[in-house]
Amino acid sequence: PAPVRTDVPTDFPVGFVWGAATAAYQIEGAAAEGGRTPSIWDTFSRTPGKVRNGDTGDIAADHYHRYREDVALMAELGLGAYRFSLAWPRIQPAGSGPANEAGLDFYDRLVDELLAKGITPVATLYHWDLPQTLEDAGGWLNRDTAYRFAEYATIAARRLGDRIPTWTTLNEPWCSAFLGYGSGVHAPGRTSPAEALTAHHHLLLAHGLGVGALRAELPATAQVSLTLNLAAVRPLSTEPADLDAARRIDGLANRIFLDPVFRGSYPADVLADTAEVTDWAFVHDGDLAEISRPIDSLGINYYTPTVVAADDPEHPAPRQDGHAGELSPWPADTGVRFLPAEGSRTAMGWPVDADGLYELLTRLRDDLPGLPLLVTENGAAYDDYSDPSGAVHDPERVAYLHGHLDAVRRAAADGVPVRGYFLWSLLDNFEWAYGYSKRFGMVHVDFASQRRTPKDSARWYAEVIRTGRLPR
Ligand code: PNW
């Protein structure tokens, strides 16, 4: 390869972190090894009809046994950082009480392997795999789960905190609350708007208590963060009714998280919009002070924008968002129609629209001045194809990444303090309710042989990392 010139500026800010992301249940496998107990996703994936083809994470990408090979792959691609999640049921199998040394040992080995290759570990404490024992006690409807989470955070930080510089409490609590308790397409598969809001608040409480627990254990230099899948909400038109639809969804998707975490209060309009669903009595005195403990950065996951319009009274929308047959995840009758953005679709059916990422980043620059941002997930599912030589081609993923990295570059140039980018995902993996039918990896996994093959997108990304530039 041509030597990289260091005398000319790159496209991205100095010190920009180039990474890739995964999550424990989606890649580890070894579901019954090393003292791990079942999580709500083991239970859910075993419930007929919940996951496509009856797929489970029992084996997944077998990362638990192949982590050395996977870290070697990351090093070959030149990754500066690796975002992964810790499995609570590995580290604290009963969901409370004693730590499981064998579980901690696995992450110990993984972290040491990363550090030996010069890759910075970025750990997420909770990427949806709640110990089933805690679900049996009420799961996220039980306030006590938030306190159990803080205990688990303490255990993890005590053992790994000397070597992991960046910690994230929760990944996408919107999905845990509203897909887990609203539409029911994620574990634990419940369908109650009131429960979704209860779970939402207890997840935020867990975040706040978790931040406190982490700060008490970690060195002062450690970074503590939260990852949200904020919606890039775009009204269909500037008609007042469409703008109001956008306000409602912005409230239920974004401000319902950002206001408590960064301002210490729930938005008044969201409380009003959900008044028929709940009286919010689950919010106790002192909770918002806990939830709004300062954090060092915000992680955002972005895939596609959310285009909304006022419901048409002539043609009222059913309680659905275009996901045929699914209940709405929204916790109130929103009176909103969800429309697809223009543009091509990924294999998930999600429209490709990189401007949404630019819009989201600049909005956060304006609303939360000075807060460092990380794109903790961005990427796309596509069917890839291999040629007779065994090479795996994924031109649509390359185009998707190019467009979205350009949006990050533009945002940084326009003053957004965006400090890094984590591609979702390093490996093809268990895509939740879609099982193994959707491939998000830049590295192909043959789930029969567990053979890894970097796709064209991986080579493309490695070159972007090496040069700090997008190809012209
Ligand atoms: C995120 N939605 O999930 C997760 O953090 C990853 O684990 C996942 O593999 C990735 O995005 C791709 O799906 C989401 O329906 C799942 O709005 C569903 C939604 C959003 C994010």
From TrEMBL:
The similarity comment for this entry is: Belongs to the glycosyl hydrolase 1 family.
Q: Sorted alphabetically, which Gene3D superfamilies does this protein's record hold?
A: Glycosidases
- For the keyword Iron, the answer is no
Give the record's keywords alphabetically: Carbohydrate metabolism, Cellulose degradation, Glycosidase, Hydrolase, Polysaccharide degradation
Q: What is the lineage of its organism?
A: Bacteria, Bacillati, Actinomycetota, Actinomycetes, Kitasatosporales
Please name the GO terms that the record assigns under molecular function. beta-glucosidase activity
Q: Which residues form the active site?
A: E172, E377
Name of the protein described by the UniProt record:
Beta-glucosidase
The kind of enzyme this is, by top-level EC class, is: hydrolase
What Enzyme Commission number does this protein have?
Answer: 3.2.1.21
Biological process (GO) annotations held by this record are: cellulose catabolic process
Q: Which reaction does this enzyme catalyse, per its entry?
A: Hydrolysis of terminal, non-reducing beta-D-glucosyl residues with release of beta-D-glucose
Q: Which organism is it from?
A: Kitasatospora gansuensis
Q: Where does substrate bind?
A: Q26, H127, N171, Y303, W424, E431, W432
GO CC annotation: what is one? cytosol
